[in-house]
Design a protein that fits this description.
The complex is a heterodimer of chains A (366) and B (336).
Chain A lengths: L1 H5 L12 H9 L4 H27 L18 H6 L1 H6 L7 H19 L6 H21 L15 H27 L4 H16 L2 H15 L8 H27 L2 H9 L4 H16 L1 H14 L11 H9 L8 H29 L7
Chain B lengths: L1 H19 L2 H8 L2 E5 L8 E2 L5 E2 L1 H14 L5 E5 L5 H6 L5 E2 L7 H6 L2 E3 L4 E3 L1 E6 L13 E6 L3 H12 L4 E6 L2 H9 L5 E5 H8 L8 E3 L7 E3 L2 E3 L3 H19 L7 H4 L5 H6 L16 H8 L3 H8 L29
Parallel strand pairs in B: 1-4, 1-5, 9-10, 9-11
Antiparallel strand pairs in B: 2-3, 6-14, 7-13, 8-11, 8-12
The chains are: A mainly alpha (366), B alpha/beta (336).
Protein name (chain B): Amino acid ABC transporter substrate-binding protein
GO biological process, one term (chain B): amino acid transport
Keywords (chain B): Signal, Transport
Chain lengths: 366, 336
């Protein structure tokens, strides 16, 4: 019992070595030079953050319908508010917006269903998302069937169009990219040279050139009066362009798989497609997640280039709104809104890819 | 050989069916006029809060639809980039191009298109800060001038200053928003661009009254609608749609009083509004085509004031765009 009295009671570590104060002292104020840099950094942060917050929130105008409701001292979110429907749906007829809403709801439900691991019937939902949903979405958005009024594609726009271009581009580019990557590694000379030429051609031209070709040159080659819808032209151009990039990303992943894997599979008597589908690709695609998502994100941002062929994607419709004579001079608000929307989607994709990487982690990372 | 024959057969099936229909028939079958416009040109063609295009160029399209179909709302606006606008017209994607396009000899003769008239006489001008007290472009010797790169304005500017024996300091920007921001930040004393654009840029200043547009115009930029070559009937319809608006203004027939004027005994008004003669029939359209234009879109003054003139945010004086008997040069041949 004497022992107990002599041993000092367990005490928390002194505040100079743990907790926020210790962290600050250890990392930001350890020595005169670091202290000076910290103070300068804080001052710069102060200079940047305070006016931004004042502009975007404190002095901003939120309610109203015209430019007269804005004081011009801060951001005029009235502008974004008045244009919100247009920014989301483009020129889609206001009376038919419910159709776009159904497609939006279906789209996000399917994505969520496929992304949340606990939900059942993944396989059937995936099949529906790839086969059934595009048909449903087309019938709803385009109309012309079941007494739905037709909405020509040049009235589609805004966020809806951006998501459409990006989704079709991604869903189309991944399988084409896989096939091209496999073809480029093939031993068959015709298949191989076709894939090499295809990939190098599409990677060799800028996307803006592809879109210009699709919109300016293609109509001249076709007989007059026959025109392919410009949205379709843009979609095909975008998908082929991205599939070339995707092919090279996937080829990089394929090359990282040791040759022994494929040889072992061959020794077990597996056919080519089984070797690829069951042994090589699952390993390669898993490792390629950062690269694939990188390509997807850049594709998502590349969709803004369709503006030059007269399609109003999110950025295009914002820019069109900036030139309305009733709203001249609010370009900053418009661009901040567009940037924010793009950030939401790109950041979500990035987070989901990190989650996928963790989920599929099988010790291959170092 | 066999393949070639099949190809020929395929083409012969496709081509004639397409080539036969005239533009007017195509428009009437489709029940809408496809009009190529600018996506973002304040005062000429821009989208308002209710998804409608507003502007002088788009009103020209509406007038054509009123003449050809009797309904000014039957227009499909196709936003076009400045590069693809001519291809869109040539390939038949649009029936008429009304997209702040300057009428020049090379465009008229080499691009397979015809300009039908001048809907707006534009030209390069100067904008200066009002507190400088400058009254004329001749006083701008030694000024720093903001312009946009890659446009003809750069060239016009250097020509103008050289001819007048003055020097200037060019400050070049890429886009209109950048050049107006540079002007507001004091990077230059003068901003030079087409007058129509200067008035729009002026509206983007935090206080539009801090700048004035000088009266000198240093280049000719006649803007007008254009159609494909080879369809004279459609060419006439587009041409006379604009002339009808000018004639209506000259005769005092406006959107407001057109129904009263329809009872007028003035032979010119009677001919314009289709009460006398049948000038629509000669173009393959209804006799009351001009009445429909004025009733649904207005005369030239209505259209001008609403979009760029006194009734708009820009308040651009009529100037060259006034009627010939009112100090301007807008002159339409008579309807008779």
């Amino acid at each position: 019992m004497i022992h107990n009295q002599t041993i000092i009671e367990q005490r928390p570590a002194p505040s100079s070595s743990v907790g926020p104060v210790a962290w600050l002292r250890g990392n930001l104020f350890n020595g005169p030079i670091n202290t000076i840099f910290t103070l300068i950094g804080l001052y710069i942060l102060y200079l940047l953050v305070v006016p931004t917050v004042q502009w975007a929130f404190i002095n901003a105008n939120w309610v109203g319908t015209t430019r007269d409701d804005c004081s011009r001292e801060g951001a005029c979110w009235v502008f974004v508010n008045a244009r919100f429907t247009q920014f989301i749906y483009g020129l889609y007829p206001r009376t038919e917006i419910w159709r776009a809403n159904i497609v939006f709801a279906g789209f996000f439900t399917l994505i969520a269903w496929l992304a949340i691991p606990r939900l059942p019937f993944k396989r059937w939902v995936a099949v529906f998302a790839l086969v059934g949903f595009p048909v449903v979405a087309y019938v709803l958005l385009h109309g012309g069937y079941f007494d739905l009024p037709r909405v020509p594609t040049h009235r589609w726009g805004g966020l809806m169009l951006t998501l459409l271009l990006a989704t079709v581009g991604m869903v189309g580019a991944l399988p084409i990219g896989i096939v091209l990557a496999l073809g480029r590694r093939s031993n068959m000379p015709i298949v191989k040279s076709f894939c090499v030429v295809f990939i190098e051609f599409w990677r060799g031209v800028p996307l803006i050139t592809v879109l210009f070709m699709a919109s300016v040159m293609l109509p001249l080659f076709l007989p007059s009066g026959i025109s392919v819808d410009r949205l379709v032209r843009a979609l095909i151009g975008l998908t082929l362009f991205q599939s070339a990039y995707m092919a090279e990303v996937i080829r990089g992943g394929l090359q990282a798989i040791p040759k022994g894997q494929e040889e072992a599979a061959a020794a077990l008597g597996m056919t080519y497609w089984k070797r690829m589908g069951l042994i090589v690709l699952p390993q390669a695609l898993k490792m390629m997640i950062p690269g694939i998502v990188n390509t997807f994100i850049s594709l998502f941002k590349d969709t803004t280039l369709v503006m030059i062929i007269g399609l109003f994607d999110l950025l295009g419709i914002v820019q069109a709104a900036l030139s309305d004579s009733r709203w001249l001079g609010f370009s900053l608000e418009g661009y901040v809104f567009a940037a924010f929307m793009f950030w939401i989607f790109c950041f979500s994709m990035s987070r989901y890819s990190q989650y996928l990487e963790r989920k599929l982690h099988t010790g291959h990372k170092r | 050989m066999k393949n070639v024959r099949w190809l020929g057969l395929g083409l012969s099936i496709l081509v004639p069916t397409v080539a036969m229909a005239s533009t007017l028939e195509t428009v009437q079958n489709r029940d809408s006029v496809r009009c190529g416009v600018n996506a973002a040109q304040p005062g000429f063609s821009s989208l308002d809060d209710d998804d409608q295009y507003r502007g002088l160029d788009t009103d020209v399209c509406r007038a054509i639809a009123a003449a050809a179909l009797g309904d000014a709302t039957k227009v499909d606006f196709v936003p076009l980039d400045s590069v693809e606008r001519f291809t869109a017209l040539q390939s038949g994607e649009v029936d008429v191009l009304s997209r702040t396009t300057t009428w020049t000899s090379s465009r008229d003769t080499t691009l397979g298109m015809h300009f039908t008239g001048v809907s707006y006489y534009d030209g390069q001008a100067f904008m200066v800060a009002s507190d400088l007290g400058v009254q004329s472009a001749k006083e701008l010797d030694g000024a720093a001038v903001c312009t946009q790169s890659g446009t003809t304005s750069e060239l016009n500017l250097s020509d103008y200053f050289r001819v007048n024996g003055m020097t200037y300091d060019p400050v070049v920007f890429d886009a209109p928003e950048q050049s107006i921001a540079g002007f507001e930040a004091g990077r230059c004393d003068v901003l030079s661009s087409d007058a129509s654009q200067l008035y729009a840029q002026r509206m983007q200043l935090s206080d539009p009254d801090m700048a004035v547009v000088l009266p000198e115009i240093i280049s000719k930029e006649p803007l007008g609608p254009a159609v494909r070559q080879g369809d004279d009937q459609w060419f006439n319809i587009v041409k006379w749609s604009l002339f009808a608006m000018l004639n209506a203004e000259e005769l005092g027939v406006s959107q407001e009083n057109v129904d009263e004027q329809r009872e007028s005994e003035d032979p010119d008004v009677m001919r314009l509004l289709g009460k006398d003669g049948n000038f629509g029939e000669a173009m393959g359209i209804e006799a009351d085509w001009a009445y429909q234009i004025v009733k649904q879109v207005g005369n030239y003054a209505d259209m001008y004031d609403r979009n760029v003139g006194a009734g708009s945010e820009f308040n651009i004086a009529r100037g060259l765009n006034g009627l010939w008997n009112d100090g301007g040069i807008q002159y339409a041949p008579p309807i008779r």
